[in-house]
Design goal:
The chain has about 220 residues and is of the alpha+beta class. It has one domain (about 5-220): Jelly Rolls. Helix content is about 30%, strand content about 20%. It contains 6 helices and 11 strands. The two termini are about 30 Å apart. Bound molecules: zinc ion (2 copies).
């Protein structure tokens, strides 16, 4: 499926982009960030800026102490530099899964081993380091995921279809960053199954008895 970049409305935060650039995120989050960047020109451009700042700071360390104005000087240096050559990813790839996810799955959607987790929802947990977890979720059209809060951060990248929750609507290419304060109930829109890539760095906190059972089944 082709994702129209101009349709992406929900992007990565600067904190996530910086963490990715600095290599401080858990592997599961790296995968979601890399996947969004592979689809989104805007975030890819900002990522290159963070990479450039990080590289310039590293070069200055050791010989020159970072004095007042060093950051401004670094930014001026970067801004006066040549336009960076950023090859765009192929836009007509027929796949649903972005390349970083295909690398984990070993192919596109037909290579995914789905496991049913109740309510018609299926998931495929991808192997990563245990400080966070990441899974593909398939939510049938019109179906709701139990409403839940988060003890940590949850990143959800839509790969196909769309979902809506209390905060907004998220379509292919969009990323939702949910945090501690947020309780939400995502509902897949009618007409097309919703496929998402979702990473969490702490167990979700489901509300009510049946969702708690679902939590055990979900193993999250
Ligand atoms: Zn973006
Ligand atoms: Zn959530």
């Amino acid at each position: 499926m082709k994702i129209d970049m101009t349709q992406i409305n929900h992007h990565l935060t600067d904190g996530l982009l910086m963490g990715y650039s600095a290599g401080t995120l858990p592997e599961a989050f790296n995968l979601v960030v890399a996947s969004h960047i592979s689809l989104c020109d805007e975030c890819r451009a900002r990522m290159h800026e963070f990479d450039a700042v990080g590289g310039a700071v590293m070069e200055q360390q050791g010989d020159v102490p970072m004095g007042e104005g060093a950051f401004a000087a670094t930014m001026a240096m970067i801004n006066s530099g040549p336009e960076m050559d950023m090859p765009a990813p192929p836009r007509n790839a027929p796949s649903v899964l972005p390349q970083p996810v295909r690398d984990y799955v070993g192919g596109d959607l037909d290579s995914v081993t789905w496991r049913k987790i109740g309510g018609g929802v299926s998931q495929a947990v991808l192997p990563t380091t245990r400080d966070a977890s990441v899974r593909l979720l398939k939510i049938p059209a019109g179906v709701a995921v139990p409403d839940h809060g988060h003890r940590g951060t949850e990143l959800t990248l839509v790969l196909q279809g769309a979902f809506e929750d209390e905060s907004d609507r998220f379509a292919a290419g969009d990323i939702e960053v949910a945090n501690e304060e947020m309780v939400h109930q995502p509902v897949a829109k009618q007409g097309e199954d919703c496929i998402c890539l979702a990473a969490t760095d702490a167990p979700l906190r489901f509300m009510g008895l049946i969702p708690r059972i679902a939590q055990r089944v979900l193993r999250i």
